[in-house]
Amino acid sequence: MSRDVSHSIRVVDQPVAIAVMILDVDTGLIRGLSVAEDLPDALSQSVERALTKPADSLPPGYPQRVLTAVGLGEFVAAELGRQSGLSLFPPIDEIVPGEEAEERFSTYSLNPSLSFAFRQARTDELDD
C-alpha cells in the first residue's frame, strides 16, 4: 500500500513524502515500511526490507504470493524483478486493500505520535 503522507510527515530536503507499507498476507505483520520522495524509491526500500529483515517471528524471505493495491502491480513486478535471489516470480494480484490493512496504514501514517515509525524506518535504512 502507498500514500502521499507529505501532510503528516516531513523529511529534511524532501518536499514530498510517499509512504509504502508491506504487510504479510497471512499474519498482517509489517514486512516493509519506508518513506521516500517518490513511489519507486519508497517501494524499493520496503521490498528490500521485507526480503532481508525479519518481521517479528517471521524470517525474511521471498513471498509465494503478492497482493497489491490496485494500480501498483506493475511497480511491484518491476521492483521484484530487480531483486537478486528471486528464482520464481510470485503471482501478483491487484486488490482493493481490506479495512484492516487500511486502518493499519492510517495508524502509522496519519497519527503524529506514531508516524515516527516511518521516520525511524528511513533512518535505519540510511544507517545500513
Fold and architecture overview:
There is one protein chain. The chain is α+β, with helices and mostly antiparallel strands. It has one domain (2-127). The chain is built from four helices and five strands, in the order βββαβαβαα. It has helices spanning 39-52, 73-82, 99-110, 116-127; strands at 2-4, 18-23, 30-36, 66-69, 92-95. The strands form two sheets. The protein has a three-stranded antiparallel β-sheet with strand order 1-2-3. It is globular.
Brief summary:
The chain is an alpha+beta fold.
Main sheet, how many strands, which sense, barrel?
A: 3 strands, antiparallel
H/I helix tally:
4
The percentage helix is 25-40%
User: Could you list the spans in which at least 5 consecutive residues all have pLDDT below 50?
Assistant: 112-116
Numbering strands along the chain, what is their spatial order in the largest sheet?
Answer: 1-2-3
Number of domains: 1
User: What proportion of the residues form beta strands (DSSP E)?
Assistant: 15-25%
The chain-level mean pLDDT equals 81
The number of strands is: 5
> What value does the Rg take, in angstroms?
14 Å
Strand/helix succession: EEEHEHEHH
Give the overall shape.
globular
Instruction: Indicate the structural class.
Output: alpha+beta
**First and last CA, distance:** 24 Å
